[in-house]
């Protein structure tokens, strides 16, 4: 299946192409969301729509450090206007065998795959969605 | 018929053991590595064991597995919850289940491990805040060796349903059915039920399935031909539900599909069906086209006596703009000349045996929305999805070119749903897909009928969205124009001005098209009033006037629950018992008046009862005793202000919490909804004379007036409707009461809240004078410290999409002319959350 | 001709039980899959008349698999096998195009009733 491959720092991730609406350049500044969880970078205006942008690093509980805002990967999850802040997008690649990821299992991660000799962490769009909603419901 | 589960026992033991061992391994790995790498697979193991054990009827194992599943799921949501104690508990549970499986393997009953279950249950409750859910387990008689012998009758044979033991093949002849049950063929019990003659519809899979399953020869089919064949999947009759595991419960619509099929042939296409739209009796009371109906006042006597003393006169005075509204309504009720999509009223019932009626209803909803536009749905979709469907009954109206046959066809393949009726619906008087007047002359009283066209509601929503974005784009253009060189500006500005005017005009037209009569929601009230009154053993006359007045659909939809709550409040708490009324020299029947009026750009809805009235002193003392208000502050409140205390969470003078009140929509929620759509709520009351709730509502919701303020680097919008004023003061010089600074305003001192702290946005420490915005809060006025006032703006409000709608304290978002998204704050909720 | 069925569940126990139910109802079980990935592959290969789909499975959930199957073949008939408490997941599956659902633990007749209804055999 074809995946959009992108990076957070040096780590490579993949999301099924069908789950990605588009990739955009982030605005100069995000509007902060009152009382939002830390992982929420803010909202941005995408052609009149208000999109919530999440820092993938925080969502996946990766080591601390701000993501240089390179690209926003917009998810195509129904009406949820959700975007992921990532370092850069590499391209679209076919990812075949996805195996269980050693040592980093969260609902947001489907597994790992090999791509051109390198490892890619394959994300689960529904798991991502659920993880974002969980951030909000638990922060109350 | 139950399945012979014994054949799966070996597989169950080996596979469950595998899962449980893997579960144990995952746990150990989890503990050793301190990571939660295995949480997902743990969940699947527990889930699988639950499913298998429940299918086998091993309740003790299924329940433990269910609890483990709950706990792992909670960890999955938040890995911070995983601690050593929990790992210990889960390991114990895994070991216990292994022991239970071993017991089963040795032909013993699994231990019910009550102590462990208590521990697991408590942990579930503390982690999820919810009591553990019940575990459903198949009714399988404990796998006694002797039970397995009787499977000679067919592959799906015996298993002995819930203790009755023997396979009933052959005994079901009493049903007089075709005698060939399908694969789902009955056991002995099915046959018995069939004898009553009503089981026919239920057992229907018998004959239908006959061809497909030659192996089956049970006699239990009970295809009683006398019953309505359209009963689908209903629990047949006696016996079926009492003894699960027996076949007659959920048959398929088998024997006589014939009674449904004639309908399939009747479809005359849209043209002919348009003429067949016979008046629908249900709506008869409010047909607004009759001239003497004047303002459409509807008098509903709620018990048969003395309807005559209802105040018809009120109806005459209530609606100030009858001509305009009525002419539109006249258009609405006139026969529609050419409609592509005919409207159908559909009544359905979800089978009482359905385990998850919510999902079932959702499936029906999905099928029907594929067919056309759902214009009415009762219960509402959210209720349906939650499975709150009284008696399984669903009513809806559907606009579709597919016709009656199409509707039947769409639902034909859905199990557990009975289509009770599909009838042409009369469009008037409640027209949700709004009638769009053709521009100009359309409002003339005479020839409107031929000049209207029906529009799908989604299309209207789309228009509004798009016009909203046009407005944003225009504002953006104007911003861009400001940085152009002086000499090129006028031409652009002129163009932008013209564009702005056109877009604004278009917006107004779209809003007009979205206007929908209040009757859409007030039509529900008589029935609700009757139900509430009956439960309270009161007698009530409900009088509704002005229901033809129109409001934006979006506001209307929001108001439905609040109106119902207010009505409930009037009848439940406002009206006295008949004997008390007699003592107060009032008639025995209470009266509730719902009057809708139009006043310039507002719609006013009054709900008034002639009951006992509210006691301001009681409200004050209730608020004081709950610590919501100081005694001094309470003493200063006027009566009218005191009545508003009833809108604070937790304050109510009603001592009795009946099942009628207290359903989650409190007065605080009513007030919030009204304010969120840009309206206000007032309460007037006189002891012994009654109470009146007044809702003042804007005609449209999409455009709101904001005061923009800056905090740190962020901009927020405050609804002007809630802003009392703004002032400047030196924050350091304010007097304080404990931690709270107090701002002098008028002749009172207002508590000061720092907006940066309220919204969690960093802002530099400020010295010297700064602006304060004075706003109405739930319990009096408050002052918000901000960094800068940016001015007022009229903006198009956008609702919050997931996940933003989960945050408290936001009422919407908008995009400014600069392109910047700005949140609109719900200050009372920010203060209370 | 007997209708052809694909059974998807990560537990062999469940697959066997479901297979037996279908056999007893006169259906032909033409394939089985133990996870969502396999399910999509098998579906494309076998083009069954009907697929029963577990929801919680490794690698790819039943919902995602359903979505992909429907995308590949909009006329696919997929019936979700769910447990109580998974209502919202089932609704998601319906949104994704699932035709109907059954609730575990189920009885043979319930399964066949739903299946025959969905296939329009009654």
From TrEMBL, chain A:
It comes from the Bacteria. GO terms for biological process: chemotaxis; signal transduction. Residues 1-140 form the CheW-like domain. SMART domains: CheW. GO terms for cellular component: cytosol. PANTHER family: CHEMOTAXIS PROTEIN CHEW (PTHR22617:SF23), CHEMOTAXIS SENSOR HISTIDINE KINASE-RELATED (PTHR22617). This is Chemotaxis protein CheW. It comes from Myxococcus virescens.
Automatic annotation (TrEMBL), chain B:
Residues 146-209 have a biased composition (Gly residues). Its EC number is 2.7.13.3. It catalyses: ATP + protein L-histidine = ADP + protein N-phospho-L-histidine. Residues 142-299 are annotated as: Disordered. InterPro entries: Bact_Chemotaxis_CheA, CheA-like_dim, CheA-like_homodim_sf, CheA-like_P2_sf, CheA_P2-bd, CheW-like_dom_sf, CheW-lke_dom, CheY-binding_CheA. It is an enzyme of class 2 (transferase). One of its GO terms (cellular component) is cytoplasm. Residues 1-104 form the HPt domain. The modification Phosphohistidine is found at residue 47. One of its GO terms (biological process) is chemotaxis. One of its GO terms (molecular function) is ATP binding. Residues 498-701 form the Histidine kinase domain. Residues 703-833 form the CheW-like domain. PROSITE patterns: CHEW, HIS_KIN, HPT. Keywords: ATP-binding, Chemotaxis, Kinase, Nucleotide-binding, Phosphoprotein, Transferase, Two-component regulatory system. PANTHER family: CHEMOTAXIS PROTEIN CHEA, SENSOR HISTIDINE KINASE CHEA. This is Chemotaxis protein CheA. The lineage of its organism: Bacteria, Pseudomonadati, Myxococcota, Myxococcia, Myxococcales.
TrEMBL record, chain C:
InterPro entries: CheY-like_superfamily (IPR011006), Sig_transdc_resp-reg_receiver (IPR001789), ST_Response_Regulator (IPR052048). It comes from the Bacteria. The keyword Ubl conjugation does not apply. The keyword Membrane does not apply. One of its GO terms (biological process) is phosphorelay signal transduction system. Residues 4-119 form the Response regulatory domain. Keywords: Phosphoprotein. The modification 4-aspartylphosphate is found at residue 54. Pfam families: Response_reg (PF00072). PANTHER family: TWO-COMPONENT RESPONSE REGULATOR, TWO-COMPONENT RESPONSE REGULATOR ARR22. This is Chemotaxis protein CheY. It comes from Myxococcus virescens. The gene is cheY.
